[in-house]
Each structure stands twice: as C-alpha cells, then as structure tokens.
Amino acid sequence: MGDGGAGAAGEEPVRVDDPSYLVGVPDEFQRLWTPHRMVYIQQADPGHEGCPFCVAPTLSDEDALIVARGEHAFALLNLFPYNSGHLLVCPYRHIALYDEATPEEVAEIGSMTQTAMRVIREVSHNDGFNIGMNQGAIAGAGIASHLHQHIVPRWAQDANFFPIIAKTKALPQLLGEVRAALAEAWPKG
After folding, report:
1. Which domains does the chain have, with CATH numbers?
2. Could you confirm whether 148 is annotated as catalytic?
3. Looking at the chain, which terminus has fewer C-beta neighbours within 10 angstroms, N or C?
C-alpha cells in the first residue's frame, strides 16, 4: 500500500489511499448526510420522464407535498426548503422558461403565487417573502427543465449564523405538517 506523501521529518506519512484512515479526522465542517439529493447530483436535468414536477401531480397530495392544484399549475412544498413553508408553483406542462408559458399558465402561476402569500401569511405569520424564478442551470435552477416559481416566507429573526458557521439550516417544522397546515388554509373552489 502506498502512502499519500511524506509527513514532516520523523512523522508518519499521511495515507490517502485508505479512506478508513481519515474517518473521524476533525475539521471545521459538520456533515449533514443527504443521500436523497443524489438524484439531483447524478442527473442534473432529469428530462421529462424523471422530472419531479411532472411526477408530483400523478401522486397523492400528501406523497407529493402538493398544497393546491389548479387547472394549469399547482403549488407544492420545496423538498429542500430555505425556510418552513417554502412553496413552489409549477405549470403542469413541462416547459423550461417563463417566456414559453401560455397566457393562461402565467395568469394561474401569478394567481397561485398571490394565494400562496396570503395562505402562508395566515398560517405562519411571516414578515415578508422572497419570490422568484431561476431560469436555466447557470442561473441556479436545480430543475432547469421545468419552470417553477419560489415563494419563500421570511421572518425578522430567521437569519442567523447557523448556516454560515455550522453549514446547517435549521427548519422548525416537518414538511408533512407544513403541507397539511397550508392545504387546510388554502381557499377551496
């Protein structure tokens, strides 16, 4: 077995060929293991067949984290939220860019975004929102092939140094609980 290079004079060389040697070596990072994200890492653009926004409407609302369904679009929780209540509004049709949406899709995405804001404010008592779309992978879209609008609730005290120092995001509510609360408060009809 080779070594990964010599250490300082009189020290044992650092072994990089044996991963078990490095287990437990402390550094500044805490690890939050998220194997469910491998689908996004291994397949950056899943295409229509593997698109989670195309699959979601075929599942139950609870399984897909869908809060509301419209005629041209639907609202669901982000599986990787920035804050509790982080919703996405997606057209059913598999399109990548906002300028590819029909006038009906644009109107319903806008209407559902407004309703989402009202519902989130009623349920969560948040202080503000970040709303936006990342268009294309280069602009930060995780699923670049299917248009989606983010609605992220914000509170005056939601920003802290935990993500910066601990490389961890704290979310005070489980996704299923948030989905149930928002779906219950969403206007019927």
Report:
1. 33-185 (3.30.428.10)
2. yes
3. C
